[in-house]
Amino acid sequence: MNAELEQLKHLGFLKIFKESYNLIVSKWRHIFSKIFLVFIFPFCFLILADMILTDHLSLSIAGKTINLLDDYEPTNMYNRQMKHDRDVHSILLGVFTLLYFLIGLVVFYLFAISAISYVVACIYASKDTNLKQAIRVVLKAWKKLVVTYLWNFVIQFVYIGVFVALAVACVVIGSREGKLIIGIVIGVILFISFVVGLIYFNVIWSLASVVSVLEECYGLQAFKRSRDLMKGKKKLCIGIYMVFQVLLVIIQGGYFTLALFLFPVFVYVIAGIVFFVPLLGVVLLGFVVQTVLYLVLKSYQNEGIDKSSLGAQLDGYLGPQGRPISGRKNVQLNEV
């Protein structure tokens, strides 16, 4: 059913998706189902809730701001109430955004990565596992993963800050007499470079998150490690990343399209039915693909060692309690 580890280096774009799908629907589907309910379902629910609340509050804030700009009389009771409502909605938007970051991303998102990375590695190491063991691993691996994620946040914050500063410089250049064309050209080149760099960095992060769980390194070392693993396979990594980004954009775009044309009461129902289910599938498959891709890259880099070394690495979280999975053939796994 699943590719042996020495064959993983030969898996291409479509076969990586097939391999990941086979893992989910095979005899290990019971553990994936439990992880799905415990971690991925709440995470996706928070994504949908954030989309709905952000959309509703943002439109409300924008509408009230426009009305106040058109006709604002400080002594007008209606305008004072509108300003108060706008400020309250702005605070609520900030609170919801912070809660989504702390609970949705830092907790459920990282928990899901840790659990699925561990389970997929156990499958290839021919080790039995269950939800209880996965949760124990999550609580230990999560600490390393948080450090890596915080570095990801800091680096992206600095990267975006530099881009904004350069964009302002382009505006200044373009505002000068006779420099408009130069400013536009520089701005377009800068924007394209920014998008390409952001995509490349996010690909590195997706691998660094798995590295932080299955290897000893984390933080900046995990980013360096994932960049090294990508050598010779960058197009494959970027292609897989873009597939999931496009799918998520389609899901989010579909929701916002409905939000423009339907009444709010229908938006909640339709969004929950039409967009929540595919979102669940995309997120689950995406997490599994991340780990399979990591193993493919390690195999491609010829870092081969037998499954016992991976088992020892996994036992570092739990102690040597893993048992061979019955019926699973011996596989060669690259060193973790």
TrEMBL record:
<feature type="transmembrane region" description="Helical">
    <location>
        <begin position="145"/>
        <end position="174"/>
    </location>
</feature>
<protein>
    <recommendedName>
        <fullName>Glycerophosphoryl diester phosphodiesterase membrane domain-containing protein</fullName>
    </recommendedName>
</protein>
<feature type="transmembrane region" description="Helical">
    <location>
        <begin position="91"/>
        <end position="124"/>
    </location>
</feature>
<feature type="transmembrane region" description="Helical">
    <location>
        <begin position="236"/>
        <end position="263"/>
    </location>
</feature>
<feature type="transmembrane region" description="Helical">
    <location>
        <begin position="269"/>
        <end position="297"/>
    </location>
</feature>
<keyword id="KW-1133">Transmembrane helix</keyword>
<keyword id="KW-0812">Transmembrane</keyword>
<feature type="transmembrane region" description="Helical">
    <location>
        <begin position="35"/>
        <end position="53"/>
    </location>
</feature>
<feature type="transmembrane region" description="Helical">
    <location>
        <begin position="180"/>
        <end position="201"/>
    </location>
</feature>
<keyword id="KW-0472">Membrane</keyword>
